[in-house]
Amino acid sequence: MFDLIGALSSLPPWLVVLLISMLPFIELRGSIPAGILVFHMDPMTVFIISIIGNLIPVPFILILFENVERWLRKYPRWAGLMDRIFEKTSKKASKKVEEYEALALILFVAIPLPGTGAWTGSLIAYLFGLDIKKSFFYIVIGVLIAGMVVTILSTGGHF
User: CB neighbours (10 Å) of residue 17?
Assistant: First the structure.
């Protein structure tokens, strides 16, 4: 059986932080506390690595998700799962995203709570057909804000 903890412990801490920050649902909300509290890395270094890692998947999601969705919908099990994910995401986003596109997307990504973040923000941008370049910019701002909040919380206010 594959030993995930063993495999991760053999990697350099900065790479573990980068990989954690790329994971959906965990993102930098998990990578920053891990880097600071578990690996005892410099908070600014953790912040930068986590921002970069959290943003790596965003352009791929924004640009390629339509093709991925079309391919996955060929399979009934995936189509049902996607319907549930889209329904849940649409309920969270509501019509405010369409009305206040920039602010809504920034705040949605910036709030460091479960179910928010760059992955979900990218999915919202896709679902609402928002401009890719603008969406990426808004998501970057949201990720920076979330990164600052989580870093401050993880350091007890000593950024």
Answer: 29
Residues in CB range of 102: below 8 A, 6 or more apart: 134, 138
Element spanning 82, H or E: helix 76-93
Biggest distance spanned by C-alpha atoms of the chain: 50
Spans of all domains in the chain:
12-155
DSSP class of residue 128 equals T
CB 151 within 8 A of CB 43: yes
Q: Which residue has the tokens 């990504």?
A: 109
d(CA 80, CA 110): 29
Q: In this predicted model, what pLDDT tens digit does every residue of 112-143 receive, in sequence order?
A: 888 889 998 998 898 888 899 999 999 999 99
Q: What's the Rg (C-alpha) of the chain?
A: 16
pTM of the predicted model over 0.85: no
Encode pLDDT of 95-120 as tens digits: 666 667 889 899 999 998 888 899 98
CB 117 within 8 A of CB 55: no
Angle at the Cα of 8 from the Cα atoms of 2 and 13, rounded to 5 degrees: 175
